[in-house]
Amino acid sequence: MKVIRNLLIMMKAIRTPFFFCAALVFLLASCTTITTEPIVTTGNISSVTQTRATSGGTIVSDGGETITDQGICWSSNPEPTIHNNKTSQLLGITTFVDSIIDLTAANTYYVRAYATNSNGTGYGKALQITTLPDTSMPRPLLNLNLSYDSITDIDGNKYHTITVGTQTWMAENLYISKYRNGDIIPNETNNSKWKALTTGAQCTYNNNVELNSIAKFGRLYNYYAVSDARKIAPNGWHIASETDWSTLIDYLANNLGISTSVAQAMAAKTDWTESSVTGTIGCIDFDIYESVNNSSGLCALAAGIRGDYGEFNYVANYCGWWTSNQSDNENAWFRSLSYYGKNVGRNTYNKSYGLSVRCLKD
Predict the structure, then answer these.
(1) C-alpha span between 43 and 5 (Å, rounded)
(2) Bridge partners, 151 (sequence order)
(3) Is the CA virtual torsion 163, 135, 209, 154 positive or negative?
(4) 162 Ramachandran zone, left/alpha/beta (phi>0; psi -120 to 50)
(5) How far apart are CA 47 and CA 55, in angstroms?
(6) Whole-angstrom distance, CA of residue 269 vs CA of residue 333
(7) Listed residue (227, 225, 228) closest to 201, CA to CA
(8) Helical residues (DSSP H) of the chain, grouped into ranges
């Protein structure tokens, strides 16, 4: 009997750690099946303009469940959620990039990545951005009796557009710094280097860097940039041709409205040198000058030009616009306005000149 009793005690001693180990194994197995919301990090923000930006994210963990939605969300609230603005990316992509759109100029927003599974939505850290100010043409330069639309170029620059007859024109000079494919149009500030160029380049008058002024008067381009196959006009637009300009001028000549000349119908009400000749852009009688200019809504300004030797001339007196037509291997056609003129000039310049550009809707 004593032997049997000792045997039972030994079996009990062995059974206790066995059950403990079994319980421990069960708990460990249970831990491996616990699921959570996804873990996400927010990617850097880049390419910020007045209305757009780029961001993204990386999914660090799916939380043990299948991801059903992922992307970025944004809001003026410091903690944006998917109930605000969001994008939805292709599932299965661990690291993703997307565009933040429909923003308002000069506003602050918060952006963060997100991912959703059956347990909920996980968010990355919220990052702050401030959109660029709207440097498009100030409204006082526009004809407020007319209706304008707008377009945005690859740089995020906004342009007012105006319909004149059967055509739709930009109401501002082009000031893009990239070709349509994203390649940079070199900004050449050195006069000697400008003179020697046989490839596309752009500049600002007197190499000015003030953004509002650049938006107001536009950039100056040599003809090599205008004719480059990569194109400087935004998608859906083109550099106005000789035929386009003739169509515009013929229409204005027959539809002057309150203006007394085609030049007045095109010219903005400000920033032109005064002229004593009646009917010209810069008519010295300010009341007339203010009331009759810009009946077309085209807001033409005396932006000046850059000569083929690199020198800047004629701001406040004159503007010239390249057409898309060359006249020979060295020269191309342009149209122009002068403060003392009543009509639109037409002539050729060497392709090394720096002139303004107006675009027309396709």
Answers:
(1) 70
(2) 159
(3) negative
(4) beta
(5) 9
(6) 26
(7) 225
(8) 2-31, 191-196, 211-217, 223-226, 242-254, 262-266, 286-292
Q: What is the pLDDT of residues 76-115, one digit of tens each?
A: 999 999 999 999 988 888 999 999 988 888 889 999 999 9
Task: Report the alpha-carbon distance of residue 360 to residue 165 in Å, rounded.
Answer: 13
pLDDT value of position 4: 44
Query: What's the number of CA atoms in the CB half-sphere (13 Å) around residue 277?
Result: 13
Both structure tokens of 188: 């050449």
Taking residue 219's Cβ as centre, other Cβ atoms within 10 Å add up to 24
Q: How many CB atoms lie within 10 A of CB 250?
A: 12
Residue identified by tokens 């003030």 is 210
Q: Show the beta-strand stretches assigned E in 289-341.
A: 305-306, 312-313, 318-326, 331-338
Which residue matches tokens 């702050």?
A: 128
Hey, where are the domains in the chain?
A: 39-130, 139-361
How far, CA to CA in Å, does 139 sit from each of 84, 143, 171? 32, 8, 11
pLDDT in tens, 254-302: 999 989 999 999 999 888 998 888 888 886 555 555 678 999 999 999 9
In angstroms, the CA 351 to CA 332 distance is 6
Here the tokens at position 225 are 């940039």
Task: Output the six-digit token pair for 205.
Answer: 């008058």
Encoded tokens for 127 = 């990052």
What is the CATH class of 39-130?
Answer: mainly beta
